[in-house]
Amino acid sequence: MSFAASVLTLYPEMFPGALGLSLAGRALEAGTWSLDAIQIRDFATDRHRTVDDTPAGGGAGMVMRADVLAKAIDHASPPGDTRPRLLMSPRGRPLTQARVRELAAGPGAVILCGRFEGVDQRLIEARGLEEVSVGDFILSGGEPAALVLLDAVVRLLPGVMGNAVSGEEESFENGLLEHPHYTRPQEFEGRPIPEVLISGNHKKIAAWRRAESEALTKTRRPDLVQNGKTKG
User: Fold this and answer.
1) Total domains present in the chain
2) pTM score, two decimals?
3) Annotated binding site
4) Residues 6 or more apart from 158 whose CB is under 8 A from it?
C-alpha cells in the first residue's frame, strides 16, 4: 500500500512543487506515494468563498473558520480513514526524525496548511489535529512547511533512496549531527582528505566519524546532548 498524502490548502498550485522532482518526483510517478491537493475554498458556503473571519475578542488579522475547515477535512478524511491529521503550525511540537519515520511507516497523512493568524481552536479539538512545527520561525503559510514534512517522509519510503543505509547514517538518526564528508580530488586548495578516511581501516574510520559527529553536536546543537537524546 502506498503512502497517501492529502493536503488542504488555499494554494493547491503550490503542490507538488519540488516534490515533483528528483527522488520524490520519481516515487510519485511510480505510485510509491500519492498526493491530493484540496482547495479549502471549495467548501465555503457563500458566493465569495470566504474561509476566514475576524478573531473573537478582537485583535489584528483573520482566523480560519471551523465550519469551512471541518467540511474540507471530512471530505479528505471520511470515517474509517486511519491517517493522522496534521496541522502545520509554529506553535506545534517540533518535527523530529523519529516522527518522520513513524509517518513513513504509516498509511499517509492529512495535512492542513494554516494561513492568516491561525485556525479556530474548536476545529483543532473537534477533528483531533496534531499540530506540527518545522522550526522556531514564522512562514507566510503552512504550505512550505507541508512540503518540508512530505519531503522528509517520502525519501524514507521503501525503494525511494537507492541505498537504504544512507538514511541510517544521517543527522538525527542516532541523536547526533552527521559527520563531515569528503570525496575526490584528494587535495583541494591545499586541504587534503583526512588520512584516516583513505587508510582502508574501517574500524578507525567508524571511530573517526563517531568522534566528529559528537564534536559537531556538542558545538552546534548542545541541546541534543543536554536533553540526553544522543545514543551509543
Assistant:
1) 2
2) 0.90
3) 114, 134-139
4) 32
